[in-house]
Specification:
Strand order of the largest sheet: 3-2-1-5
Largest sheet: 4 strands, antiparallel
CATH architecture of the domain at 40-109 and 146-224: 3-Layer(bab) Sandwich
Number of strands: 8
Shape: elongated
Order of helices and strands: HHEEEEHHEEEE
């Protein structure tokens, strides 16, 4: 009797197994896809390429804007440093830009009647009382090591330097006119009394815009504009 039951169970098991194996593979509940087709991969790549083509110009503009802002901050920091150096050394400091170039240079103006070294013919040193506003000056040859070059970020150029004329700057500018013939701008002057030339220094990217560093002569304060259209 037990043998009959065992045979019946065996027949049922064989039938169940047979049905499982005969079930269509496409509708099996455990069937899963394990990979993408080539067409799907190509479609994803095409979408990513389209998105990249739309976003890359915006990223480029953002990077150039940051470059302009960084250049403006660099010049502003140099202006503050030159002003402090002029007060510390008692000398006039000149800041010039290479027009359509990528650098500026700062150098002291050496004179036989410098504020901290002047001695008049009597030996009393009364010339010290005139400071940087002396009526006459004699240029003293300066060492190349005293010249500091300020390099701007990539692709940023000095588009222009505008300096407001003043009586005390006229003689120094006339003595320095040879530099302007080599492409250098009029100098922005920093005086030992803490004042400066009133000036605008323009920095530009060839296609993406420009910023302007504004220097206020009375206080020597420098500010940087927002990025402007080319």
């Amino acid at each position: 009797m037990h043998c009959g039951r065992d045979r019946s169970r065996a027949r049922l098991t064989e039938g169940a197994v047979f049905k499982v194996h005969k079930a269509p593979l496409g509708i099996h509940p455990l069937t899963r896809r394990s990979a993408f087709t080539l067409l799907e991969l190509l479609l994803v790549i095409a979408i990513l390429a389209a998105l990249a083509s739309m976003t890359m110009p915006k990223w480029g503009m953002l990077l150039n804007d940051r470059r302009l802002i960084r250049a403006g901050d660099q010049v502003r920091a140099s202006v503050a440093r030159m002003r402090v150096e002029a007060m510390r050394s008692g000398r006039v400091i000149m800041l010039e830009g290479m027009l359509e170039g990528t650098s500026l240079r700062a150098k002291p103006f050496y004179s036989a009647v410098d504020a901290t070294e002047a001695v008049d013919q009597t030996g009393s040193g009364s010339e010290l009382l005139t400071g940087a506003d002396q009526a006459s000056a004699v240029v003293v040859e300066q060492s190349e090591s005293a010249i500091e070059t300020i390099d701007l970020p990539d692709e940023i150029i000095v588009s222009g330097v505008s300096v407001v004329s003043s009586a005390r700057a006229m003689e120094i500018e006339q003595m320095n006119v040879s530099g302007q013939g080599q492409g250098w701008s009029r100098p922005v002057l920093f005086y030992p009394d803490g004042s400066t030339s009133t000036a605008l220094i323009g920095l530009a990217h060839p296609t993406m815009g420009r910023v302007v560093v504004k220097i206020r002569g009375i206080t020597g304060d420098a500010t940087v504009s927002e990025v402007l259209a080319p």
